[in-house]
Amino acid sequence: MVLARRAQVFGSFLWRAVKDPGSKQLRDVNKHFCQCYFTVPATSELPKKLKKSERKPLVRSINELKREARQKKKDRQKAHEIILQPPENGMLVKQLIPVAHQVYAARLELLSIVSRLVKHIAIYTCSLCGEAHVGHPPHKIKSCNVKGSLSNKQHSWVRGGVEHVLPTVESFHLYDRIGRAVSHNEMLLVDQIPAIVELCIQAGVDIPEYPTRRRAFPVYCVAGRIIDFEKRFPKDISLGKDIDASGFWHEKKRVDGGVNPMELKYNDIQDFGAALAVQGMKAWEKMCKGASKLMEKYAVQTCGYCPEVQVGPKGHRARNCQAYKHQMRDGQHAWQEATISDLVPPVYVYHIQDPQSSEALVNGLKRYYGMLPAAVELFAQAGAPVGKKYASVMREDVVVPKLDEENWVV
Predict the structure, then answer these.
(1) Which pLDDT score is estimated for 187?
(2) In sequence order, which residues have a C-beta less than 8 Å from that of residue 224 and are 6 or more positions away?
(3) What does the alpha-carbon distance between residue 183 and residue 271 come to, in Å, rounded to a whole number?
(4) 381 has pLDDT over 90
(5) Cis bond before residue 218 (omega within 30° of 0)
(6) In what residue span(s) does the APO domain sit (predicted)?
(7) In this predicted model, what pLDDT tens digit does every residue of 82-133 receive, in sequence order?
């Protein structure tokens, strides 16, 4: 009863503080009484962790998608030409070609910098659930809740690498982006490359190992049918002659594996680690911002229940989805419009406010810890300043109490 009465008095005190912060009664209160911690959730910008039965949120509302589908159906029933704009007509968007080259260059620079920093900053990953952690020692938060995990839900940490900081999402490479979709029988005959690289290729970046068709004349849409005059009346030099559009079985240099790290001007990571991290942070922001700009024109599809991504106006037809109720779809994916998080997954890890500290993050104080994308956390621990974009998720304004002080936290 005494504790309940004290809680009621303190609750009324806080209500008066919010309602009338200039009250004389509040000004006369001892200043030390107001030095307490508040656990107001400040990580509202973190994406919600979906259950296996939940579908990814749609970029556009379902009513808007239905309205657009009905309008397209009416247009197909009319025997008239539908004017297509780039890139729907097979042509490139000229003003986005430099952006595609910038995104591709920023990705190469980002991979080079991360591969150098992970040699000096430890990366851990859970061998059971796949959660990542940047910095040493790994945290002790009991959040491993998958099949086969330990009874105390602690993680089984092993050393990780670049792929755990920058995971690669692959997509089928399309020789003709407005052609037919990849069928199930062609699933093993078509190359799969990083989706962001495929986006850059379709937007104007030419890679000899992965050729794509560049049209000189646009295609036309009449009564819902695509008419390609270049195909009906080919030039003297065929655009598709002697081109292997599916080089999966040949020994070709992969986009990631064959790229040599850039020779940067920083030779000593201990002296120039902060400058290297700042350069990596700029490359990360340039890649994400540029990819988002490309996705406004070049469509990218993702499955609503699994991480599968296909760059192009429509998804592939490979029946390899193993997500929620895939039997009802015959293994096909539930395609919807993708976001930048589907193309470049931000692996969120716990933010360490003091990288020089040797104390691990504990389970009892997990509600006070902020989070950051793994790449951003890696650069932050190397000395790069984190911008205001991540201020609400990293929670720098929250003071982490000691374990013996946690009982006094409000």
Answers:
(1) 92
(2) 72, 75, 76, 82
(3) 52
(4) yes
(5) no
(6) 125-209, 302-388
(7) 788 999 999 999 999 999 999 999 999 999 999 999 999 999 999 999 999 9
Distance of alpha carbon 172 from alpha carbon 202, whole angstroms: 12
Q: Is cis: bond before 87, omega within 30 of 0?
A: yes
Judge whether 288 and 340 are in contact, CB under 8 Å.
yes
Strands 170-172 and 157-159, bridge-based pairing: unpaired
The per-residue pLDDT for range 158-177, each reduced to its tens digit, is 999 999 999 999 999 999 99
The secondary structure of residue 207, as a DSSP letter, is B
**All residues at 6 or more sequence positions from 173 whose CB lies less than 8 Å from its CB, including other chains:** 190, 191, 192, 193, 198, 201, 210, 212
What three-state secondary structure class fits 303? strand
Report the helix count and the strand count for the chain, using DSSP H and E: 11, 13
Query: What φ, ψ does residue 172 adopt, rounded to 5°?
Result: -65, 135
Token digits for 33?
A: 């009484």
Burial class (CB in 10 A: 0-12, 13-18, 19+), 352: buried
Are the beta carbons of 344 and 312 closer than 8 angstroms? no
Q: How far apart are CA 105 and CA 102, in angstroms?
A: 5
Cα–Cα distance, 216 to 90 (Å, whole number):
9
Contact by Cβ (8 Å): 148, 127:
no
Query: Alpha helix (H) ranges present in 298-345?
Result: 340-343
Cα–Cα distance, 17 to 14 (Å, whole number): 5
Residues 6+ apart with CB under 8 A from 149: 128, 129, 156
- According to DSSP, the residues that pair with 371 across neighbouring strands are 350
**pLDDT bracket for residue 72 (50, 70, 90):** confident
Task: Report whether 75 contacts 221 (CB < 8 A).
Answer: no
Token digits for 71?
Answer: 């309008």
pLDDT at 40: 40
CB-based contact 175:211 (threshold 8 Å): yes
**SS3 breakdown of the chain: % helix, strand, coil, rounded to 5?**
35, 10, 55
| C-alpha to C-alpha distances, 372 to 27, 335, 367, nearest whole angstrom | 38, 28, 14
CB 107 within 8 A of CB 259: no
